[in-house]
Amino acid sequence: MNTSNNTTRLATFERVESQVRSYSRSFPKMFDRAVGATIFDDKGRAYTDFLAGCSSLNYGHNQPDLKAALIDYISADGIAHGLDMFTRAKEKFLASFERHILTPRGLDYQVQFTGPTGANAVEAALKLARKATGRDNVIAFTNGFHGVTLGALAATGNGKHRQGAATPLSGVTRAAFDGYYGPDVNTADMLERQLSDPSSGMDAPAAILVETVQGEGGLNAASAEWLRQIEAIARRHGALFIIDDIQAGCGRTGGFFSFDGMGLTPDIVTMAKSLSGMGLPLAVTLIKPEYDTWKPAEHNGTFRGNNHAFITAAAALETFWADGGFEAEVARKAAYLSERLEAIADAHGLRTKGRGMMQGVETQGGEQAQAICKLCFDKGLIIEASGSFDEVVKILAPLTISQKQLAAGLDIVDAAFGAVLGSQLAAAE
Amino acid sequence: MNTSNNTTRLATFERVESQVRSYSRSFPKMFDRAVGATIFDDKGRAYTDFLAGCSSLNYGHNQPDLKAALIDYISADGIAHGLDMFTRAKEKFLASFERHILTPRGLDYQVQFTGPTGANAVEAALKLARKATGRDNVIAFTNGFHGVTLGALAATGNGKHRQGAATPLSGVTRAAFDGYYGPDVNTADMLERQLSDPSSGMDAPAAILVETVQGEGGLNAASAEWLRQIEAIARRHGALFIIDDIQAGCGRTGGFFSFDGMGLTPDIVTMAKSLSGMGLPLAVTLIKPEYDTWKPAEHNGTFRGNNHAFITAAAALETFWADGGFEAEVARKAAYLSERLEAIADAHGLRTKGRGMMQGVETQGGEQAQAICKLCFDKGLIIEASGSFDEVVKILAPLTISQKQLAAGLDIVDAAFGAVLGSQLAAAE
Amino acid sequence: MNTSNNTTRLATFERVESQVRSYSRSFPKMFDRAVGATIFDDKGRAYTDFLAGCSSLNYGHNQPDLKAALIDYISADGIAHGLDMFTRAKEKFLASFERHILTPRGLDYQVQFTGPTGANAVEAALKLARKATGRDNVIAFTNGFHGVTLGALAATGNGKHRQGAATPLSGVTRAAFDGYYGPDVNTADMLERQLSDPSSGMDAPAAILVETVQGEGGLNAASAEWLRQIEAIARRHGALFIIDDIQAGCGRTGGFFSFDGMGLTPDIVTMAKSLSGMGLPLAVTLIKPEYDTWKPAEHNGTFRGNNHAFITAAAALETFWADGGFEAEVARKAAYLSERLEAIADAHGLRTKGRGMMQGVETQGGEQAQAICKLCFDKGLIIEASGSFDEVVKILAPLTISQKQLAAGLDIVDAAFGAVLGSQLAAAE
Amino acid sequence: MNTSNNTTRLATFERVESQVRSYSRSFPKMFDRAVGATIFDDKGRAYTDFLAGCSSLNYGHNQPDLKAALIDYISADGIAHGLDMFTRAKEKFLASFERHILTPRGLDYQVQFTGPTGANAVEAALKLARKATGRDNVIAFTNGFHGVTLGALAATGNGKHRQGAATPLSGVTRAAFDGYYGPDVNTADMLERQLSDPSSGMDAPAAILVETVQGEGGLNAASAEWLRQIEAIARRHGALFIIDDIQAGCGRTGGFFSFDGMGLTPDIVTMAKSLSGMGLPLAVTLIKPEYDTWKPAEHNGTFRGNNHAFITAAAALETFWADGGFEAEVARKAAYLSERLEAIADAHGLRTKGRGMMQGVETQGGEQAQAICKLCFDKGLIIEASGSFDEVVKILAPLTISQKQLAAGLDIVDAAFGAVLGSQLAAAE
Fold first, then answer.
1. Separation CA B359–CA B377 (nearest Å)
2. Nearest to A143 among C168, C199, C387 (CB)
3. What is the rounded distance in angstroms from the CA atom of residue C218 to the CA atom of residue C215?
4. I need a surface site. Which of A191, B9, B239, B413 has the fewest CB within 10 A?
């Protein structure tokens, strides 16, 4: 390894990297290696990773099966970049995806490899919905996050990102997510009211775009019943029903799809983040055959054939989704996580949010949550907050984390809540 | 390797992959391995690659130094996915980029790692320009190609891609590229006329966005003089001057930047394609410090920390750009390429287009060019056409191709022109 | 008069006038003269006018004082068309408006003469709000109607008109009007919730644009309390508070402004319809001095100096608003109207809607309301329906109508309800 | 008349009228009466009107036949405001328009009465074109002026007005007007080039919208040949050909339509300004029957039935267009105007611009033109400048002006040019 000291090496970033950098401000260390749920800085210090690449590392860092498959592939001069040509690696991924994911669920989606970012998958989905319906308006939800390229950004709720466009965003109408106006207001009924009223000012929609659990939005989890109502509204009003499963999919909430078992059949599903299994850039748009009306290359992109990612993605499907074992394991961990977070929340009069391995505790505000996350980092835990005011301390541990490491990490979280809320109590007294 | 026959395996694509697939229609083989300028199908047949991932594989497939560096990195459990945290791999890339690219050219760009697609880098560039100027209008050029996400797509000229949006594209005004109205019309003067006329209807621009050679647009190469005039117009009217160097950069036209030696200092440069050196998804936006006004994470994306790509990109810089040897080699090959293409063009009363290792021959139309490309493929050469009517047969060979393989590939091209234009002559007689 | 028969003369319209014509389909007679609340067809048949030019004829047809003032003016060769030059007629109007309207209310609005349509006044108001705030987003309400030019149309809720644009409408976010989700949901609280949430996806607004009573929207009357809450929300979030008083103003709901006495001080008020008093095209935008940041002619229009309208408008102010007599008279008639409509509504299990002389009865649907209006017309009463489904039979009688004629007109309405709902009962049995 | 002094009365405007006022700054007098080409201020001073309401008073102020018809109509309690109901006044106008304008020219336009502003007619035209074609993009020209409501403003070239929107304008692509790049560049060929190139970035147009003479744009007159080429381009590319004849129509350039005798048959024509003949607000959109696809009231507006204007418009058609006398008279005056202006231009090395009674002299810049206009006003002549820099001194005299008054007015212009350019010469020496 390099012998230069930390200060010197971080200076490279100060000198050459754009001010847009963000996580490096919260976690100002030079990271180097990572295995499973552990990430090491260049001094060799180990950190437990409760961020997991914002749910891009559901199977942990450098998962051995995936790593081996990738090294084998590269060693054999497997194609790395394949545009959208037929390759062995892509065939492997598609066959695995069909066998382990689509067929068992009775789904016949066509798989589109978009540019390898979640935003790009969302852009493709919105284009298709507009093509299919001849309509412009897309309905997206309060606190939704769908990416920051201009088409996806119009659907994203976050004000900082929206202002970053520095140009008005159009083509999207906002509806209220499940529970947005409190538990007593059914926001799906409100949407139905507006769409049924020809003078409401809400134009007939091309699509309704929704996350089942809003990761960036603060771990807001929609109920299955509300989602079914939204799907029914989409059907009734001639709109495509699109689930953005980029953060909540790939096992994060339990099933491969976050909507498994809810009785939903979205017309389009967008996936990215943990799809490659190893954190490599990969995104797909899953499309019901009747809406797969693309002309060849109508939506394209240089890196839509990231074959390294196909290899690791196929390995992940074979390793984790060939039978129900992994799903059961995630369910057990999620139950444990719920239990621990509820205990923390109860101790401080707070509430938990989220679903599956995508849960957190809503603090009293962003400053409090930041203080907790900072304290955790000092103790060797990488964790962040989300929500409109960054007020929800969010646990996104690798799904493959050991029970022991999960418990230890949660101990740190527990202690940090105690320290911060305790000290605040003390300060208030 | 797999024993299933070709028909069965291609059937997976027919069954599961979206209709959007495109190159696989022109090259309907299952590809498998690739080394240098050669790509192999699963029957073991070798093809010379004159497409090179649309200029994403300037150093060839699986270049040994890059491949070795990547395998070493993965084997050592190097971080694959790092969000935008500080990592050893990123530091390595930034330090190499500063040392071999920026410093020798006296440039002080800040490097932003955007989502790892060229379109994403363009989206970031346009946001910054709008932020910096408080203006909305971006000037882009006829036949320009900048990606297909909504913000970038507004700047792209291609009608098929524009229609794919199925929604009006706004925020961009079109100007005529160098030579668009023939050699006698100075289109930069026309742009100046419009911008100087307060009632022309062309709103004051946030940016002028230009490619030095329009790869997708048909290998239209702008003169250095015209580009300098465009830069001067941008300065005079308070607009940022942005060069999209995604396809023409990384040595494709000779220098690392396609505008090396032209006396240009763009305010923002976008790069992707060959930047990672091995075809891995990576994109950056280079920003003059005074315009690097991003708030942390204002433009973000899950895969902006593709550390595998940092490793190969750094290796590529060390291998190819530490001294002038590679650049000289590319210049020699480019001269040879010019010579060969001019001979082909002259033989058929056609003309060559492009610059450096990004040249082609303009045929009489798309059908003719398709016939030529198809014939080449039958002979073991992968090549495509570009331009408004797909009328330009385009050579995008790896820059590292051997003289012998380059010559052999060009022999195939020469023969294909002869066969198609000869047979057409015959048919016409 | 012309000697050609009715059929021949209506044939001119069939032959030469566009299909866009509308009221002539409901009232297929050739009209000729009109006085007060009575309009005559060319056969000399008299109709009572409960439509009053959609509230453009609040003082009735050819009100004698206004008519005399106009004839005098024209006879003396008074300037008809004055662009925006200073004219005696404009001075007269401004002085009267200041004396009788602004000063007594302690208002210091600057008066902008926009193009002489309500839509044009709304367009001007939205431009100013965007200029003043540097923001793009305007909040408008469900069922609002603000005109059909592109800027105003974006704020209009009506689906038929929106689709007429045949292009996406942007720059406006929709909020729910008072009572939209029923009496138990405070929609102002909902708006506050969204604007206070930085990730709601509702961008910071330039303006909140509201009608106090939605005439076209179905006579939805906002409560003073709700309007004050909306005004407070606008102030809190840095938006201009704009009241569109085009249909509800000029005495229609009692006071000169529909918001008189509600404790509101909108930043901008738009007026048109009955402003000229005689149905002549005139529109103004009233602007708080601090927002009157127009450059000369920045918003212009050929007919912004309709001096005939200035003359009749000034005469209307002198005749009706110099003291409180007219306002008291309108209040008495409105009370009588309420009483009669409630009786009709009660008789059929329906409900009344609206406020002042802008009230109606909500039927069970558009077909029913059409049948009632048609029957009224057969009996010599001109009346129409409004609302999302044209389900509200709307009384917009001239405010100057005699008690006797008002009563007689309401007798016709009463009978029509009886006939239609009675016959429907009979049909249902 | 009022006895208050001028200062006091102008103070009303200072106190109450918006800063947007414009002409009153150039002509700071209180105007009162006007007859023919003469306008009087309240001191009784007579001014010759070479502005004519920006071509809204082609028949002069208070033309006796029109004035008499209007007084008769009002005296007889003729309907003033008729929404879009059938009225005797409207029938009279339509019948006259058909008899004297459409039938002699073999045109079968359907007449739509839009809101009574030119901008509103343009908005209607653009909606129809988008409906008819299902396309969004409208092509408009450099220096074009079509109004300032958001839809029309997008087509307007003037930067001050565009910035007034304070929001991006979309849906319009700009093309270069005839002669924009000098006499040697055929801008129609350039447009054809762009539309024939599928990658030019110019989307397939719904319409091409053009003025035959750009009044506000600086009296740029397109040649008949260029206009025919533009019409042919529209047909070839499936776009509607729309002529905005608002300023150049109604005899201003000679014929009733500015395109009379040019071999053009636009799909839609917009008219306003002088259509009512007396300066009253009136606008129409003339539509080929196959494009008159409006649903009833799809485009509406309260004042679309300005019956006073129908009466004066019908009278104007009967008085001026029943035979060819007026047209011949205008031709004679236009020839005289040309002769006089050429003499002025020649004397100062300048050039004339425009066509018919819509001509002017291009000075060396806006300041010079302002000085000339100011001097004229001091001498009793109302005149203004237009063009990108307000550099063209523009004569828009009433077409009915006497030869004597026209000559006297031109003497003032001549002297003003002499004084200003002479004094500048003196200053320069």
1. 19
2. C199
3. 6
4. B9
Residue of A171, A198, A199 lying closest to C168 (CB–CB): A171
Confidence of residue A3 (pLDDT cuts 50, 70, 90): very low
> Is residue D257 over pLDDT 70?
yes
Q: Which residue has the tokens 């071509």?
A: D55
Three-state SS for C324? coil
The complex's ipTM works out to 0.97
Q: Residues A15-39, buried b or exposed e (16+ Cβ, 10 A)?
A: ebbbbbbbbbebbebbbbbbbbbbb
What residues of C are in contact with residue D138 (Cβ under 8 Å)? none
SS3 D125: helix
Counting as contact any 3 or more CB pairs under 8 A, the partners of B are A, C, D
Min distance D21 CA to chain B CA atoms (Å):
21
* D197 to chain B: closest CA residue: B388
- CA triplet D381, D387, D393: central angle to 5 degrees? 25
D17-47 burial, b if ≥16 CB within 10 A, otherwise e?
bbbbbbbbebbebbbbbbbbbbbbbbeeeeb
CB contact under 8 A, A115 and B117: yes
**The pLDDT value given to residue D303:** 98
CATH 3.30.70.270 fits A65-320, yes or no: no
Question: Cβ contacts (< 8 Å) between A110 and chain B: which residues?
Answer: 16-19
Within 13 Å of residue C8, how many CA atoms lie on the same side as its CB? 6
Q: Which residue of D has its CA nearest to B200?
A: D142
State whether A137 and C162 contact (CB < 8 Å).
no
User: What is the bridge-based pairing of β-strands D381-382 and D358-362?
Assistant: unpaired
- All structural domains of chain A with their residue ranges: 65-320, 324-392
CB A308 within 8 A of CB A70: yes
Question: Residue B144 is encoded by which pair of tokens?
Answer: 């320009």
* pLDDT tens, position by position, A46-96: 999 999 999 999 999 999 999 999 999 999 999 999 999 999 999 999 999
pLDDT of the residue at D7? 64
What is the residue-wise DSSP string for B181-204? T-TT--HHHHHHHHHH-TTSS-PP
Is there a contact between B109 and B102 (Cβ–Cβ < 8 Å)?
Answer: yes
Residues of D in contact with B157 (CB under 8 A): 199-201
What's A153-188 look like in SS3?
A: HCCCCCHHHHHHCCCCCCCEEEECCCCCCCCCCCHH
Amino acid identity for residue B162 in this structure: R
**How far is the alpha carbon of A41 from chain B, nearest alpha carbon, in Å?**
8
Contacts of D167 in chain A (CB under 8 A): 168
Per-residue confidence band for D114, with pLDDT thresholds at 50, 70 and 90: very high
Paired with A393 in beta bridges are: A361, A385
Phi, psi at A264, each rounded to 5° = -110, 145
Q: Determine the Cα–Cα distance for residues A339 and B330; give it in Å rounded to an integer.
A: 63
Q: How far apart are the first and last CA of chain A?
A: 51
CA distance B245 to chain A (A): 14
- Which residues does chain C have within 8 Å of residue D98's beta carbon, measured at their own beta carbons? 12, 15-16
Tokens 């909040």 appear where?
Answer: C139
- Which chain A residue lies closest to B149 (C-alpha atoms)? A123
Q: Is the pLDDT of residue B104 over 80?
A: yes
Residues of C in contact with A197 (CB under 8 A): 142-143, 388
* pLDDT value at residue A109: 98
Please tell me which residue of chain B has the smallest CA distance to A301.
B147
For B130, other C-beta atoms within 10 Å of its C-beta total 22
Report the share of chain B in percent with pLDDT over 90.
Answer: 96
DSSP conformation letters of D281-299? ---EEEE-GGG--PPTTSS
* pLDDT tens digits, one per residue of D75-111: 999 999 999 999 999 999 999 999 999 999 999 999 9
Distance CA B165, CA B155 (A): 12
Q: Please give the pLDDT value at position B9.
A: 75
